[in-house]
UniProtKB/TrEMBL annotation:
Gene3D superfamilies reported for this sequence: Winged helix-like DNA-binding domain superfamily/Winged helix DNA-binding domain
Keywords recorded for this protein, A-Z: DNA-binding
GO CC terms in record: cytosol
PANTHER family: HTH-TYPE TRANSCRIPTIONAL REGULATOR ISCR, WINGED HELIX-TURN-HELIX TRANSCRIPTIONAL REGULATOR, RRF2 FAMILY
Protein name: Transcriptional regulator, BadM/Rrf2 family
Family annotation (InterPro entries): Tscrpt_reg_Rrf2, WH-like_DNA-bd_sf, WH_DNA-bd_sf
Coiled-coil zones: none
The species this protein was found in: Flexilinea flocculi
One Pfam family named in its UniProt record: Rrf2
One function term, GO molecular function aspect: DNA binding
Length: 131
């Protein structure tokens, strides 16, 4: 079974919560943490990473908070995945000699990886909120 990390799941929930605000106004991390039942320190870590990747903007101060970045509703699950988990990667050959079984396995993992990436690119925040 392919396992989705808690970090990725919380990151997607955060992005959906921010996308739900039609005015894209800043929401406090404390309010988001409470709304989504995500521990505040973990939410801060996730938000920091998403901010570094340009997916969200953080405004400091008493009226500050988090809001979607410039891509807005065009942000895909692929963007979120890459920000929080890094590039999807497949194994590489550890042998200098060609091994047919290894080549076949690598071809399969590359094909699966390409399909997963395309599926992740297909889901944008705007699509998720239509459901």
């Amino acid at each position: 079974m392919l396992k989705v990390s808690r970090r990725l799941n919380y990151g997607l929930q955060l992005m959906i919560a921010l996308a739900s605000d039609k005015e894209n106004s800043s929401k406090s991390t404390a309010a988001i943490s409470e709304q989504l039942a995500i521990p505040l320190p973990f939410l801060h870590q996730i938000a920091h990473t998403l901010q570094q990747n340009g997916l969200i903007k953080a405004t400091p101060g008493p009226k500050g908070g988090l809001k979607l970045g410039s891509k807005g509703m065009g942000i895909s699950i692929y963007d979120i995945f890459n920000a929080l988990e890094g590039q999807f990667s497949v194994p590489t050959s550890e042998s200098t000699e060609p091994i047919e079984e290894n080549d076949i396995a690598l071809d399969v993992w590359n094909a699966v990886g390409n399909r997963i990436q395309e599926a992740l690119k297909d889901y944008k925040l705007s699509d998720l909120l239509k459901k």
